[in-house]
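thread from #wetlab-drylab

HS: before we spend reagent money on co-crystallization trials with FE2/S2 (inorganic) cluster, can we at least see a predicted complex? here's what I'd submit
DV: go for it
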Amino acid sequence: MLQENALVALCETSDVAPDKPLRAEIGPDTYAVFEANGQYYVTDDACTHGPGSLSEGYLDGCIIECPFHQGCFDVRTGQPTLAPCTDAVRTWTAHLRDGKIWIDPKETR
Ligand code: FES
């Protein structure tokens, strides 16, 4: 795990593709990293509805479908877009440096 100021590297940009979300871990915390429309987005990997792992879901544009009950979120905002999901999933700003995707785990939005 590389650290630069408060930023922590999650993965290489080349590890992520629109059809290949990535699950990244920092200690006990798990994140889902997405590429959508040429941008990178980071959310909590855990679905707010249940045990689904969003990085294992299906990404359609900026909408991630949870593989567990097929609820959906907008990866840009974390807002739910389809039931049964009703609570937003947390998001972090994806910073790009040196071919890697970084976040500040303590970022508040
Ligand atoms: S666990 Fe994700 S929609 Fe139910």
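DV: The pocket of FE2/S2 (inorganic) cluster is lined by residues 47, 49-52, 66, 68-69, 71, 84-85 (CB under 6 Å).
HS: ok that's useful, forwarding to the group
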